[in-house]
Specification:
The complex is a heterotrimer.
Chain A (H helix, E strand, L loop, with lengths): L19 H17 L5 E2 L12 H10 L6 E3 L6 H10 L4 E2 L7 E4 L24 E5 L2 E11 L6 E7 L5 H9 L7 E6 L2 E5 L4 E3 L2
Parallel strand pairs in A: 2-3, 2-4, 4-5, 5-8
Antiparallel strand pairs in A: 1-9, 6-7, 6-10, 8-9
Helix pairs in contact in A: 1-2
Chain B lengths: L8 H16 L9 H7 L1 H11 L4 H10 L4 H13 L16 E6 L25 H4 L24 H7 L32 H9 L3 H12 L8 E14 L8 E18 L7 E10 L3 H14 L15 H7 L2 H9 L6 H18 L7
Antiparallel strand pairs in B: 1-2, 2-3, 3-4
Helix pairs in contact in B: 2-4, 3-4, 3-5, 4-5, 8-10, 9-10
Chain C lengths: L14 H16 L5 E2 L13 H10 L5 E6 L6 H14 L2 E2 L8 E5 L12 E5 L13 H10 L3 H14 L10 E3 L3 E3 L18 E6 L4 E5 L5 E3 L26 E5 L6 E5 L2 H9 L10 H20 L3
The chains are: A alpha/beta, B alpha+beta, C alpha/beta.
């Protein structure tokens, strides 16, 4: 790393993945598992200390999936210079000003996530262009909370998410109704990950 | 007895050993050097660079050597190697008007600024086998070094630019592209989707199979999607490749490439209100590759039919058809994959045919 | 784990390419049965020989994985051997022929007979990902049909079969409806294997390299073979057993043993067949000259594999 400017500029960004190849592979497999089996909870398989207010799993997922080909939107809660610098340095991703330009959104304040229609849902012919949301939440529990059903789930399963708005199941239902268009969400507690693909149904029970 | 295409690693290794021996040929003959291939088989090397989408004459020559002289196989080697290369920078557009020209001809004007320059062309050779070449051994005495040529005019404006100045040819715009403000797409980094737009089409054509493009171009000349072409200008020579490094902010030259450019002047268009103008077809190919550049320009123009309000009636005008089938690596792979085992599927078909035959002959229709 | 080639990135692909493919894989999982376009790279193996499956495998494989590669159900076919060897070379991973040991199975044209479990991922090599392609050659049109869930052309095609042949004539790559929304090509597996895709406990990923499409079926997803009420979907069946191992529940390949009508019918799944024989099962022709010769060839290839794989 170039440290020549260390004295007269911002300090060098905090470290990223210790092993960019194998850490990214392990993280991706955990993310793939989370999305393939909605409601299951994946532990964070690496050590990572991102700049606040980024939390470890969300930051690890960002480094796994983002690069110069993915426009990224940061919600106001994550609009910190240290976060921007860290993402730019380690992922090289372009940061965009509005959610409708984003392929990925990093959301620090899950409680404000009351309108998913601000994000791209993809074209009817190309629904894969719908955005992926990486949402930081306070905590995840697999044996309580909402009832999930759909692809990836044998029958039904449960997931409790601390931090999302109480009305989230209704908000999500609007997204699920767009299927195959829509957005997909990774729910990132600091050290636990779950995912909601657009194909999953979430009900209050 | 049963052998089929089962066979393990020993069989594969044995096949590779045979290939290596056959490729080398008679060990009493000197092996070709990469430099010999690069310089003396330069047109094959150019084609490998063009369709391999990688400008590296030594690598292309090596690929041709490794491929036992099979150009398609050499292209495949170069493409697979290209996959592993990092993307370091994006160059500025080549300025072919500033080309160090080695050949430049126009079929539309008898003379023009800079003149006609034949350069190294087969055009007016009589295709008689030169048995003197067969008698060459090592040192080559029959061909004296070329005498000092008259220096070419420094200013050699492009015909299309001259016509453009007079408003006689359509201006070069991004109008054919779905999103002119977007950065130039990269066929090798983003999936091809339709409609592709001209920038993506030209990329695909530039690395498309020469034989396929040649036949398509020919079909348009024979009436399947006519474009009334004139070879406005063909030029071949070297151009500088520039990038603008992030930390410098101004262009620097990183190298020089040989390219062939063809500007076709085609079927004019106009209306009661818009005065008629000629239309364009464009070809640009790595190396000395005149046949390919001309074919590319014809196909480019034909593919613009929908944008120019012409009916799409022939294969050469059909973007999906042309772009989906022009790649030699894709085509060669998929045609040849038929030799892989398909016995599971064939068994399924055998079973289906036997059942239907039983049912048809009334021997008790099964389930 | 053997040592991968020095100078080659783990899995051959550079990290940016892997990320691109991984992003496509996630979208594929999120929209079961929908074909995600991806910027497929040129691989050092030819198009049509598994470049899509190879790119998917290369993007997900890790040092902890145990890889199995099959072609026509068998580990000992040349292309399977070649792909397995490629991954040993560029990833140094452990490989196996045993279905149960594998965490990752790349396949061409079959789903193994041994049921797969939740800890396994099946990666299919796909030549033509678009199930509507032979009815409508234009991508722009088939995209529109998928967008509108307008599958009329497919039903017309199947119905014409019935009118013409008295049954649906498609015997492999038999179209399926995934999650009640997308008609999907299961790749050229025999329709015998279609039922194994439904409500499967394992993740199924599909890679089409030349056509540059990736799609997926998550675990426990509905996968229904298209049919009509009066002509329900049915699979192939044999009125015989495997000549080598006696299995009556596996897909059989027909092997021509001479030019006067001699035939053997043997499991296409070489691991399944070998496992049954190791357990003492014997088919009717196991002791014949042709049967012994065939079994010998299979064992020899398996020994070669075992000797190349030190793990």
């Amino acid at each position: 790393m170039d440290t020549r400017h260390a004295t007269n500029a911002a300090p060098a960004p905090a470290p990223g993945l210790a092993d960019p190849v194998f850490d990214a592979q392990r993280l991706f497999r955990a993310a793939l598992e989370a999305l393939s089996r909605p409601g299951t909870i994946q532990a964070l398989p690496v050590d990572l200390t991102p700049p606040a207010p980024l939390t470890p799993w969300a930051a690890a997922l960002a480094l796994t999936l983002l690069d110069l080909e993915t426009p990224v939107w940061l919600d106001p809660a994550l609009e910190a210079q240290a976060v921007r610098d860290w993402l730019r340095f380690h992922a090289g991703c372009p940061l965009v000003a509005t959610p409708d330009e984003a392929a990925f959104a990093l959301v620090g304040d899950a409680s404000a996530l009351d309108d998913l229609s601000a994000f791209p849902i993809g074209a009817a012919e190309y629904p894969d262009q719908g955005a992926t949301l990486i949402v930081q939440v306070a905590g995840l529990r697999a044996d309580a909370g909402w009832t999930l059903s759909g692809p990836g789930i044998k029958g039904r399963t449960r997931l409790a998410v601390a931090g999302l708005p109480a009305a989230f199941p209704a908000i999500w239902a609007e997204n699920a109704a767009l299927h195959p268009q829509g957005v997909d969400i990774f729910l990132c507690a600091p050290h636990a990950l779950a995912a909601l693909p657009r194909s999953v149904t979430v009900r209050e029970d | 007895m049963y052998v089929a295409v089962k066979g393990g690693e020993a069989a594969i290794d044995a096949a590779h050993a045979q290939l290596a021996a056959r490729r080398r040929g008679d060990p009493d003959l000197a092996a070709l050097t990469v430099a010999q291939i690069r310089d003396q088989m330069a047109l094959a090397v150019a084609r490998i660079m063009a369709e391999g989408s990688l400008y590296d004459p030594d690598l292309a020559a090596l690929a041709l050597k490794q491929a036992w002289g099979d150009v398609a196989e050499a292209i495949f080697l170069v493409r697979a190697y290209r996959t592993t290369l990092p993307r370091l920078a994006v160059t500025r557009p080549l300025d072919t008007a500033a080309m160090a020209v080695q050949r430049r001809v126009s079929a539309t004007f008898k003379d023009l600024p800079g003149g006609q320059v034949l350069g190294p062309t087969f055009d007016y050779t009589h295709r008689l086998i030169d048995f003197a070449l067969a008698a060459e051994h090592g040192e080559d005495a029959s061909n004296p070094p070329p005498s000092a040529e008259e220096p070419l005019d420094a200013a050699m404006p492009r015909i299309a630019d001259i016509l453009d100045t007079d408003g006689l040819i359509e201006p070069e715009t991004d109008a054919d592209d779905p999103d002119p403000d977007a950065p130039v797409p990269d066929l090798t980094r983003a999936p091809l989707t339709f409609p592709a737009g001209r920038a993506l089409r030209l990329q695909a054509l530039a690395r498309g199979d020469e034989g396929f493009l040649l036949s398509l171009a020919y079909s348009s000349q024979r009436g399947h999607g006519t474009t009334h072409p004139f070879a406005g200008e063909i030029r071949m020579g070297t151009v500088e490749v520039e990038i603008i490094p992030e930390d410098l902010g101004f262009p620097v030259t990183i190298g020089v490439v040989t390219v062939t450019e063809c500007q076709m002047v085609n079927q004019f268009q106009g209306s009661r209100t818009a005065p008629p103008q000629f239309t364009r077809g464009y070809g640009l190919v790595f190396g000395f590759a005149e046949r390919k550049a001309m074919a590319m320009a014809l196909v480019d123009r034909a593919l613009r039919a929908p944008d120019l309000g012409e009916a799409v009636v022939a294969p050469v005008q059909d973007e999906e058809f042309v772009l989906s089938h022009l790649d030699v690596v894709e085509a060669s792979g998929f045609v040849q994959h038929l030799k892989l085992p398909h016995y599971v599927d064939f068994q399924a078909e055998l079973d289906a045919v036997r059942r239907m035959r039983r049912a048809a002959s009334g021997e008790g229709a099964s389930s | 784990m053997s040592q991968p080639d020095a100078g080659v990135t783990f899995g051959y692909l550079d990290e940016q390419t892997k990320r691109m493919i991984r992003r496509a894989l996630l979208k594929a999982v999120a929209i079961p049965g929908y074909q995600v376009p991806f910027a497929g790279r040129e691989m050092p193996l030819p198009y049509g020989w598994g470049t899509g499956g190879i790119q998917v495998t290369a993007s997900i494989i890790g040092p902890e994985d145990v890889l199995k590669v099959i072609d026509q159900g068998a580990d000992d076919t040349t292309n399977a051997v070649s792909i397995r060897r490629f991954f040993r070379r560029v990833a140094g991973v452990r490989t196996t022929e045993r279905t149960r040991e594998a965490t990752l199975i790349q396949t061409r044209h079959r789903i193994p007979e041994t049921p797969l479990g939740p800890g396994q991922i099946l990666v299919y090599q796909v030549p033509i990902p678009e199930p509507l392609r032979f009815m409508e050659p234009r991508e722009t049109e088939t995209r529109r049909m998928h967008a509108l869930a307008d599958y009329g052309v497919m039903h017309v095609k199947l119905y014409e079969d019935i009118a013409h042949y008295g049954r649906v004539a498609t015997s492999y790559d038999y179209p399926v409806m995934v999650n009640g929304r997308h008609v999907m090509a299961p790749s050229p597996i025999p329709k015998f294997d279609n039922p194994k895709m439904h409500d499967a406990p394992f993740l199924q990923l599909f890679g089409a390299g030349r056509e540059k499409r990736i799609y997926a079926v998550p675990p426990h997803t509905s996968v229904v073979s298209l049919d009509f009420e009066d002509h329900p979907f049915e699979v192939q069946g044999w009125d015989r057993v495997c000549d080598l191992c006696g299995a009556d529940d596996s897909y059989l390949d027909e092997v021509v043993t001479d030019d006067i009508g001699g035939r053997l019918f043997v499991c296409s799944d070489s691991d399944y067949c070998a496992g049954r024989r190791a357990d003492g099962h014997q088919g009717p022709a196991a002791a014949s000259a042709a049967g012994e010769a065939l079994a010998d060839t299979m064992e020899q290839v398996a020994r070669e594999h075992a000797s190349e794989d030190p793990a």
